[in-house]
Amino acid sequence: MNQHALSNDPAAIISADKAHVWHHLVQHKPFETVDPRIMVEGKGLRVWDITGREHLDAVSGAVWTVNVGYGRKRIADAMAAQLTKLNFYAGAAGNIPAAQFAEMLTAKMPGLDRVYYANSGSEANEKAFKMVRQIAHKHHGGRKYKILYRERDYHGTTIANLSAGGQEERNAQYGPFTPGFIMVPHCLEYRRQDGLTDADYGRRAADAIEEVILREGPDTVGALCLEPITAGGGIITPPQGYWDRVQEICKKYDILLHIDEVVCGLGRTGTWFGYQHYGVQPDIVTMAKGVASGYAAISCCVTTNAVFEQFKDDTDHLSYFRDISTFGGCTAGPTAAIENMAIIEEEGLLDNSTTMGAHLLSNLHALMDKHAVIGDVRGQGLFAGAELVTNRGTKDPLNEKQVGAIVADCMGQGVIIGATNRSVPGFNNTLLFAPALIATKDDIDEITGAVDKALTRVLG
């Protein structure tokens, strides 16, 4: 069957998918008796599947990516024009959209100056890890090579990124892992660590990082890699004082601060980047997902000039950053990113994320007043989570099967929400919300209304 004929035959598409496509993050055994979901069209916050069913997408493409919404012809047209003119040239040379977007991007990130292009968040974080390791060899006799990461944070799918991953179920069955990655404790105030009961939890949680540094030896630690707001680990907003203390610690021990903005970047939290809520100055920032809102594959590893300058040394033939991302040379990515950033600016989507995010949190708190199963509500901008428990006093987490049933009920209502899953053993109990930055009050009300009905039907 030719491609055109296949595209007009839903049954043939489903058959081809079931026979040949290996889906992400999905157990395929059920597809022996049921069909996989196949999406065919999107407009704004709405997507339609191959059966013609309409859904309100409250998680921006299921993985928090389509920040400016579906169906942006402006982005597609710009990409088409650029790809016709020059689609690709290896990143050892420059191209016009890459130069233009790098200038636009760094203008939003005072103190950061250099953009290294790649094509996924995992790859961007790999670049950062390699930079840290090479700096250790070039400038610290190879000793300052360890990279700290945080419990519950997630940085990508490769073996090195899983080595820096604080989600045990994401890592299961993929070891052994790369040495030199050391975990520090989480900062989820709702589930404080034993002994941290005073009012200054934020600084105390950060002090736990210093304890790890002292245990490992400050002269062996090269970088600390953190999400500004932990995403897939449960939408963990940092407690007051946490980031101030983290910055102090990094400066004290000459440790590079690497902030992973793959999820939070490009307006998700109401600022261009999540770290900008907290007054910190990172040395390295990685980003992907919302950089081009899923219209093209692009990621960026952005550094200070101080980091960049450490690789400028023509007395040593191995001193430069000897790395390549083949598709970091594709011009579609920065072209789409330019239009994506312009849309965010022109349509005031940072402000909308802030305003609609406040409405989303207000609605979730109202649901918390109504449903005792909601133990905690957390979030920033259009990025929110509701942690579900069986008992507010004991905070025992609702089991993952019931959480999944709530998500499925919302799907049945035509609203796609997310939930932590296969991440933190025993704590995959947080509903996740990250609608596109164009969300309206009516969209938010429809999302939380579906959750209200689902909680009532599933849990009574």
From TrEMBL:
Could you confirm whether the keyword Nuclease appears in this record? no
- Keywords linked to the UniProt accession: Aminotransferase, Pyridoxal phosphate, Pyruvate, Transferase
Cofactor(s) recorded for this entry are: pyridoxal 5'-phosphate
Q: Name one Pfam family in it.
A: Aminotran_3
What GO molecular function annotations does the UniProt record carry, in alphabetical order?
pyridoxal phosphate binding; transaminase activity
What CDD domains does the record tag this protein with? OAT_like
Family note: Belongs to the class-III pyridoxal-phosphate-dependent aminotransferase family.
What is the recorded name of this protein?
Taurine-pyruvate aminotransferase
Q: Which organism is it from?
A: Loktanella salsilacus
